[in-house]
């Protein structure tokens, strides 16, 4: 029987167990420690209605208490060969450990874990540049630093394989092909005053559209990348020059981090990465042949169509948590894919597909489109903000439908989708996730 169950079946059985736990243990208790608001069912999201930035409420999805059996708080033995100063970035390291907590790392990789992991690395390197005068590490130091950072994070509960989860290698901490690494040389080439003014205090919403800081970074990266070339205005689209400019962007970011306080530098990295996170759907769509076959002519057998669609969507629910804006992108991408394959009917409406159906399932959690972090402690466990306005109907693509964009002057990119007039109001629920929740997730991570 050892090989009788597929990973998907194990995943669904585990989530069913969690749902049973939720039903059995989560009845409202007047004396419960944690009380949160969440909205009830929302059936539609008209394409022309833009979600508001300040929509409420939120629900932190709290994992178990206590977490101490899974976290070693003792300081690990470090190599002593990494020049980075960890003591000045303790809070950033703790934030990274929470965002990349062992059982959640692979499911939060795209939205929380890897953006914060990379932000932490950039912040640490930039801060070290204040004293070393260098905006990158050499390969030897980079290897030792990645190893030491991993040990520190694991001691605080983080996943043990973050380098692979986030595809980070020692070379990513070096200057790579960028010809400028010394602070004095950088400051002799770049208009640092202009750069710092553009990036000192970015707005995570407006920056993604206006790109004030990003344009300043790109300009500075081109300056230092092409500094040793005779013709700066030459073809910048050659593969080697594109690679060099991209490598130099990291050097520019490290310089910015050297001029900011650690928390501000980390926030800058997260804000800039957020612009890329919400641009595309991060999910992998399996083959749509079965859906096309069953839904190409819905009038023939609606039940068969919806059964196939639900089965198809369940595959995506195993992949990761995503943001609400990513869910909109995913719904549009899948809808267009099906339309090109001659599925003309709005099967989202027909089969009651919601935005939450594109995110990891247990209670349909969609993360905010703005940068957020998980929190972890030995008393209340681990929690991250979820959007429970999650029964919003997935919009079927049409010629008149445009996915929400921060660059539309009449549309504001939301932190959370707002409820429409179909909302039935607010209710208070008490939520305490039992200790068994984390045990189940840990077992699931080992099985998968």
Automatic annotation (TrEMBL):
Residues 79-233 form the SPARK domain. One of its GO terms (cellular component) is plasma membrane. Residues 1-26 form the signal peptide. Residues 279-352 form the At1g61900-like C-terminal domain. Keywords: Signal. This is SPARK domain-containing protein. The lineage of its organism: Eukaryota, Viridiplantae, Streptophyta, Embryophyta, Tracheophyta.
């Amino acid at each position: 029987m050892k090989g009788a169950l597929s990973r998907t079946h194990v995943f669904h059985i585990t989530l069913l167990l969690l749902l049973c736990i939720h039903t059995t243990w989560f009845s409202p208790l007047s004396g419960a420690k944690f009380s949160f608001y969440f909205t009830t069912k929302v059936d539609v999201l008209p394409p022309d209605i833009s979600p508001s930035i300040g929509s409420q409420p939120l629900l932190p999805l709290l994992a178990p208490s206590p977490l101490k059996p899974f976290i070693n708080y003792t300081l690990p033995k470090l190599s002593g060969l990494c020049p980075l100063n960890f003591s000045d970035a303790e809070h950033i390291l703790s934030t990274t450990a929470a965002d990349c907590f062992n059982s959640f790392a692979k499911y939060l990789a795209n939205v929380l874990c890897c953006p914060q992991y990379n932000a932490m690395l950039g912040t640490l390197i930039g801060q070290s540049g204040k004293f070393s005068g260098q905006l990158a590490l050499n390969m030897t130091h980079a290897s030792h630093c990645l190893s030491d950072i991993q040990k520190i994070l694991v001691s605080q509960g983080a996943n043990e394989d973050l380098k692979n989860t986030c595809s980070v290698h020692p070379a990513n901490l070096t200057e790579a092909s960028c010809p400028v690494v010394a602070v004095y040389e950088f400051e002799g080439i770049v208009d640092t005053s202009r750069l710092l003014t553009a990036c000192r205090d970015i707005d995570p919403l407006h920056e993604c559209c206006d790109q004030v800081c990003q344009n300043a970074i790109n300009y500075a990266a081109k300056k230092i990348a092409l500094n040793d070339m005779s013709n700066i205005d030459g073809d910048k689209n050659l593969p080697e020059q594109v690679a060099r400019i991209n490598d130099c962007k990291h050097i520019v970011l490290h310089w910015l981090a050297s001029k900011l306080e650690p928390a501000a530098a980390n926030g800058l990295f997260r804000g800039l990465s957020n612009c890329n996170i919400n641009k595309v759907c991060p999910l992998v769509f399996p083959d749509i042949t079965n859906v096309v076959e069953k839904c190409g002519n819905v009038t023939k057998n609606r039940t068969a169509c919806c059964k196939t669609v639900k089965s198809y969507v369940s595959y995506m629910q195993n992949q990761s948590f995503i943001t609400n804006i990513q869910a909109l992108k995913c719904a549009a991408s899948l809808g267009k894919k099906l339309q090109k394959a001659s599925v003309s009917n709005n099967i989202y409406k027909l089969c009651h597909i919601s935005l939450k159906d594109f995110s990891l399932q247990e209670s349909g959690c969609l993360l905010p489109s703005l940068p957020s972090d998980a929190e972890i402690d030995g008393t209340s466990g681990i929690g991250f903000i979820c959007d429970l306005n999650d029964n919003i109907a997935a919009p079927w693509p049409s010629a008149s439908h445009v996915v929400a964009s921060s660059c539309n002057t009449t549309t504001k990119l939301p932190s959370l989708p707002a409820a429409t007039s179909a909302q039935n109001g607010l209710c208070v629920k008490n939520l305490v996730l039992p200790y068994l929740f984390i045990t189940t997730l840990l077992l699931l991570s080992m099985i998968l």
